[in-house]
Amino acid sequence: MAIDTSTDRPILDALEVAFPGPTGDEVGALHDLLAQRAAAADLLDVAYRTVDSPIGPLLVAVTPAGLVRVAFELEDHDAVLVELASAISPRVLRSRPRTDAVARQLGEYFAGTRRAFDLAVDLQLVDGFRRTVIAHLPEIAYGTTESYAEVALAAGSPRAVRAVGTACARNPVPVVVPCHRVVRSDGTYGQYRGGPAAKAALLTMEAAA
Q1: Pairing of β 92-94 and β 58-63
Q2: Number of other CB atoms surrounding residue 88 within 10 Å
Q3: Which of 70, 139, 158, 164 has the highest count of CB atoms within 10 angstroms of its CB?
Q4: What pLDDT does residue 41 have?
Q5: Catalytic-labelled residue, pool 106, 123, 160, 179
Q6: 179 is catalytic
Q7: What pLDDT does 159 receive?
Q8: What residues of the chain score a pLDDT lower than 70?
Q9: SS3 string of 89-129?
């Protein structure tokens, strides 16, 4: 028998009280349990979660090899998950336990208590000269910057300034691998995957520490 919501509201209200839906914490716990069982069965290739930050929510994704992606809200997190499923594996699940270390260290960084990340990074989404550039970026100290030309020189190709800019713009693990510390030779910030406001906020935060 169909329920007429215009006349049977008291019945619906009583049903909702008697059989409440799961809370957000309960849903999260179920996701974690599913992810744990998938990992135990070697069926979890990409674990992810969303982390709140002063520059907006960040999607973080981890493979068994390490952190593979950090995505800003403007990149469209759902689209990023689709890209990860296509580029790495369709076995993608939200998991807090598998991403706890990333979330904790990001929290410490934004709180000003961490200046360097101690995380394994999976660079399978990066190849060629871009990988050489990405590998150099953690050497740029907290609170300092290098120009695109300086990074090109450090990467062994002093004329590849534009390629350095492309590598930084496509860095799959921003913040943790600090492409925000690479600026133009005139000191202006240049482009950033998270947008100019996010880059400015990160550099201002580090300079003030």
Answers
A1: unpaired
A2: 18
A3: 164
A4: 46
A5: 179
A6: yes
A7: 95
A8: 1-43
A9: CCCEEECHHHHHHHHHHHHHHHHCCCCCCCCCECCCCCCHH
pTM: predicted TM-score of the whole model, two decimal places? 0.81
Contacts of 178 (CB under 8 A, 6+ apart): 137, 138, 140, 142
Instruction: Look at phi and psi of residue 112 and say left if phi exceeds 0, alpha if psi is from -120 to 50, else beta.
Output: left
pLDDT tens track for 66-99: 999 999 999 999 999 999 999 999 999 999 999 9
